[in-house]
Design brief:
It is a single chain. The protein is built from 8 helices and no strands. It is an all-alpha fold. The chain has a domain of 68 residues. Helix 2 packs antiparallel against helix 3 and helix 2 runs antiparallel to helix 8.
């Protein structure tokens, strides 16, 4: 009986270790770029985030700076990353899929927190200056993005995820749940694309016009450096291939 007990404990430990290893592998798969397209997108977002920080970190208006960093964290990092996770997790099933969905929800929630910080910072900034709200094209696109995020992507996501129990309480049919998930995906994609338009419009805003030139220069310096490295690797790669053939 003692041997059987030890054997059962060993099996449980092995199962737990295997589960932990699988979970770590899944997280790595979901967060790390797996192909050239994902790598380019991730590198572009990282470049955007770094140059934004480099340009506006010394801006004298703390609330405006908080707005810029909050929105950049939301739409330059978290929400696009969460969208990539959502695409990848479709190949998972059962517990692995549930865990991946929770990770997706966590990243998107973090993005919405950054979004909220950025929104309230710029709102307070307007109040302190006595300025009117939502008078620029940038701010109106920002409001549209906010409304679509909350009443579209987030709402459909909560309803469509069975673990929340909303669909069960509402007695939704399988078709209705599937349709809700489709709306969640479509609205989420629209939110990310709309946010990038909003960010682009921000560079024409009078409050950051002077910093825009610095941003473009910083972006260009990094981009040309990456291009130089890529060119060098490509050339040396060609030489190496040529030498191997000879």
């Amino acid at each position: 009986m003692g041997e059987n007990g030890n054997g059962g404990g060993s099996e449980t430990l092995t199962s737990s270790t295997t589960s932990t290893t699988r979970f770590s592998q899944d997280v790595s798969f979901l967060l790390v770029p797996q192909n050239g397209l994902e790598l380019v997108l991730t590198a572009s977002l990282a470049l955007f985030s770094f140059t934004t920080y480099r340009t506006f970190s010394q801006h004298p208006n703390e609330l405006l700076k908080m707005h810029i960093f909050g929105m950049s964290g939301a739409f330059g990092v978290c929400l696009p990353l969460g969208a990539l996770i959502a695409i990848k997790l479709r190949r998972f099933e059962d517990l692995r899929r549930t865990r991946a969905l929770i990770l997706h929800a966590f990243v998107q929630t973090l993005g919405m927190c950054c979004f909220s910080i950025g929104f309230f910072a710029i709102y307070e900034n307007k109040v302190r200056k006595g300025s009117e709200h939502f008078t620029t094209v940038h701010s109106r696109f920002g409001m549209a993005t906010l409304l679509l995020s909350v009443f579209g992507a987030v709402a459909f996501g909560v309803v469509g995820f069975r673990k929340t129990g909303v669909a069960k309480v509402a007695k939704m049919s399988e078709h209705a749940v599937a349709q809700t998930k489709k709306w969640h995906r479509n609205s989420g994609t629209t939110v990310v694309l709309l946010s990038w338009v909003t960010i682009t419009l921000a560079f024409h805003h009078p409050a950051v016009t002077d910093a825009t030139v610095n941003y473009i220069l910083a972006f260009w310096y990094i981009l040309i450096s990456l291009a130089a490295v890529a060119f060098t690797i490509a050339i040396r790669g060609s030489e190496t291939t040529r030498n191997l053939i000879v």
